[in-house]
Amino acid sequence: MMSIYDQVAALCKAAKEASRSLSVTNTAKRNEALLSMRDALLSDMPAILLANERDMCAAAENGVSVPMQDRLRLNEARLRAIADALGALASLGDPLGAGEIFSRPNGLQIRRVRVPLGVVGMIYEARPNVTADAAGLCIKTGNTAVLRGGKEAIHTNRAIVAALRRGIAAVGLDENAICLIGITDRESASALMKMRGLIDVLIPRGGKGLIRSVVENASVPVIETGAGNCHMYIDASADVEMAVRLTMNAKAQRPSVCNAIETLLVHRDAAEAFFSAWRGALDAFHTPIELRVCPRTAMYFPDAVSASEEDWSTEYDDYILAVKVVDDIHEAIRHINTYNTKHSEAIVTRDLENAALFERTVDAACVYVNASTRFTDGEEFGFGAEIGISTQKLHARGPMGPDALTTVKYLICGDGNIRT
Amino acid sequence: MMSIYDQVAALCKAAKEASRSLSVTNTAKRNEALLSMRDALLSDMPAILLANERDMCAAAENGVSVPMQDRLRLNEARLRAIADALGALASLGDPLGAGEIFSRPNGLQIRRVRVPLGVVGMIYEARPNVTADAAGLCIKTGNTAVLRGGKEAIHTNRAIVAALRRGIAAVGLDENAICLIGITDRESASALMKMRGLIDVLIPRGGKGLIRSVVENASVPVIETGAGNCHMYIDASADVEMAVRLTMNAKAQRPSVCNAIETLLVHRDAAEAFFSAWRGALDAFHTPIELRVCPRTAMYFPDAVSASEEDWSTEYDDYILAVKVVDDIHEAIRHINTYNTKHSEAIVTRDLENAALFERTVDAACVYVNASTRFTDGEEFGFGAEIGISTQKLHARGPMGPDALTTVKYLICGDGNIRT
Question: How many beta-carbon pairs below 8 A join chains A and B?
Fold first, then answer.
């Protein structure tokens, strides 16, 4: 019997082999594959929903949390949406093949063209939609994929991948373009992180623990995604009504996601007006929002919990918000650059100079002026699809569209040119 | 006394702090700094040459190899060239601040602008020119640098960095923009590799051992550079005279560099004509080139050493060349994709279809048709300067110009937009 490492390596080799043919397909063929994958998902709907039912029963038995059960659950509408997303990918523009061309004085002609990365590894948790989304984005961009989803979704993922592979084979492409690692223990994830030379990039999607483990242990190149300790700063000159609206949206429209804010910073000159208007909005909101406050904020919210040093670096992903009054914009920027995860940061202001200062000096993928941080998202940015939100600076930053799964290649043509 | 780790961390913190002011300087100020750095190098010439003399004496005493002594040696002309390179950087275009702008249906305006990475770490060996080159490229691109050069060059590097820092301070910028790690043992390099959160990218430059150690041990993001097991393939239809000229240039014009070829692949139908013409060129060449040959090549070079499996993956960096006869272009491409380091690969052919097949399916940063692999170089590509040659696919691939030291930032402006 092969070791888990060898089993994972065998899958990666198959995906690498498949990438040689995938990488030279044309746009029309890859889009045909996407439509065929969509059709296969739809025609396998009963089998996929049955497999999901099995995962849901196991999840209930094993006491999996209710939010995780919700992320795991498929139904006809959700599966149809997943299939439709593959169709939508087919009508997106093709990032491959385009590029620049330039010539050198010696007559060498240099083309810089966009090509696939090769093999993309994904490690993720219980969301079965990631399986189809990632597979679709990889096929769109001429890459092949090795997927390692969470154990809670294993039956659903197997059924989805079986359909996708049939769809790929139906248009004459290598079904190993999409490989699922069937073993869901920690060892299979560790093995995938070590497949240097076979995996061209590894993208973790999920909670903080998962992402940290991948970043620290992988020897293959990684794109770090998703950690979001985001801030909103209410400047002295802010429009109070706008500040209240943006704060409520950025914190509470969907608190579980990475682009929601975790700390609110308020200029001391705005504190009185802002806090009294905000109190009304908090009281009127359907869910209580717990505040963790600095001493100066406590004067306005005497019943609130005091913030500890740890609160400034905590990503609650919940109806909890840390609040701090600052002396000026410089203190706000210093606080943000000390505690943030370089994801999304916002200022509410009517002061042009402060807006520019904030944009220039806050170190983050996305910096907002008078808008909610919740817009950091591939769809909202108009990229058509999203493979994740990069919080690193190398290769890709912020919402990653299909482009992020490509690299470049230089093609140089001469007529016998030598270097002298 | 601080531990080596803490000393390195203190330098990295100083460089991080300096990067906050450097990153918001304008083009004119950064170019002014480059000219001031050049002037400081020139006015410190006696001190720098004296320090270099000290390193050269130690190198001779310690039995450092002659090629390494040559890389270490400075003289007035070399130092002037290093200073001139800083001046040339000042007249290059600025990659920062440019970008794209687009709007969304909800009125959000999104700007995607090019910004500095932050703090660049460099680990390199005995070449003191890397110290000034890297410092110049970092200042050009609004980054700060933490440099860790080899112990052989420590006095030279100290003198160069002292001059550069004085030049930077003279225009009112933070001299900690360029920091040199004065400790040159293995521990200081290991410490630099672990400065996650302080170092934004680490670029190793030097031999294979150094690069492998960085890639395997770093927890900060790395750009892998320089490993070059490059090939030239002589197709059946190749012009024999051109094939001989390109082979000699790609192997022997400067065999110690990463873009020189290490294995020559020859189509069996070209073997007789090519090998007899090539023999004349080999005999006429000023230095003997040692061949490591496959059995079919041995028929033409009966005295040559037989190639072992290891030869196909060896980067000789010397007057040694492995030679193999292949049945067709497919075997050549398979051989290359099995053994190459994704650096530079060339085909010599008159067949359009084979040229296209080679370009499409060979996996490398640079793919040449009828030209020498020796052109893989930032200057030769017209980038004005080069920080290294990336052999990875993420972020930067092939010769890296100033652009490779930048990332992007999304700036989003609204008028109170919330997500619904």
Answer: 183
Nearest CB neighbour to A253, from listed B370, B393, B419: B419
Residue B300 counted as domain residue = yes
Q: What is the CATH number of the domain that holds A321?
A: 3.40.309.10
Name which of B104, B365, B371 is nearest A409 (Cβ-Cβ). B365
Q: Give the DSSP letter string of B136-181.
A: HHHHHTT-EEEEE--GGGHHHHHHHHHHHHHHHHHTTS-GGGEEE-
Min Cα distance B54 → chain A (Å) is 34
Burial per residue of B95-133, b for 16 or more beta-carbon CB atoms within 10 angstroms, e otherwise: bbeeeeeeeeeeebebbbbbbbbbbbbbbbbbbbbbbbb
- Per the structure block, which two tokens stand in for A252? 């509470």
* pTM passes above 0.90: yes
Residues A217 and A282 in one domain: no
Number of residues that this document lists for chain B: 420
pLDDT in tens, chain A (420 residues): 799 999 999 999 999 999 999 999 999 999 999 999 999 999 999 999 999 999 999 999 999 888 789 889 999 999 999 999 999 999 999 999 999 999 999 999 999 999 999 999 999 987 899 999 999 999 999 999 999 999 999 999 999 999 999 999 999 999 999 999 999 999 999 999 999 989 999 999 887 888 888 888 888 889 988 789 999 999 999 999 999 999 999 999 999 889 999 999 999 999 999 999 999 999 999 999 999 999 999 999 999 999 999 999 999 989 999 999 999 999 999 999 999 999 999 999 999 999 999 999 999 999 999 999 999 999 999 998 888 899 999 999 999 999 999 999 999 999 999 999
Asked if B235 and B212 sit in the same domain, the reply is no
Any domain includes A386: no
Place of tokens 């932050």: B118
Min CA distance, B114 vs chain A (Å)? 11
B69: CATH: 3.40.605.10
Using CB atoms, pick whichever of A20, A370, A418 lies closest to residue B414: A370
Q: Please write down the long-range contacts of B24-32, taking CB distance under 8 Å and 24 or more positions apart.
A: B24/A360, B24/A361, B24/B142, B25/B142, B25/B173, B27/B94, B27/B96, B27/B97, B29/B171, B29/B173, B30/B94, B30/B139, B30/B140, B30/B142, B31/B90, B31/B91, B31/B140, B32/B90, B32/B171
Q: Which of B194, B409, B413 to substitute to test the interface with A, most A CBs within 10 Å?
A: B409
Whether A419 sits inside 8 A of B375 (CB atoms) is: yes
A203 within some domain: yes
| Alpha carbons B193 and B190: distance in angstroms, whole number | 5
Taking contacts as CB-CB distances below 8 angstroms, the residues of chain B near A242 are 416
B247 and B211 within one domain: no
Domain span holding position B203: 4-224+392-413
Number of Cβ within 10 Å of residue A309's Cβ equals 7
Of residues B108, B360, B366, nearest to A24 (C-beta): B360
Q: Whole-angstrom Cα distance, residue B314 to residue B305?
A: 15
In a 3-state reduction of DSSP, which class is residue B357?
helix
Q: Are A409 and B24 inside 8 Å of each other by CB?
A: no
Contact A415 B370 (CB under 8 A): yes
Q: How far is CA B145 from CA A64, A189, B123, B288, in A?
A: 48, 35, 11, 42
Whether residue A13 is contained in a domain is answered as yes
B381: which chain A residues are within 8 Å (Cβ-Cβ)? 104, 110, 410
Search chain B and give the residue with CA nearest A382: B104
Number of domains in chain B: 2
How many other C-beta atoms are found inside a 10 Å radius of the C-beta of residue A77?
8
Structure tokens given for B111: 């700007």
Residues B195 and B316 both lie in one domain: no
A416/B360 CB distance under 8 A: no
Same domain, A161 and A16: yes
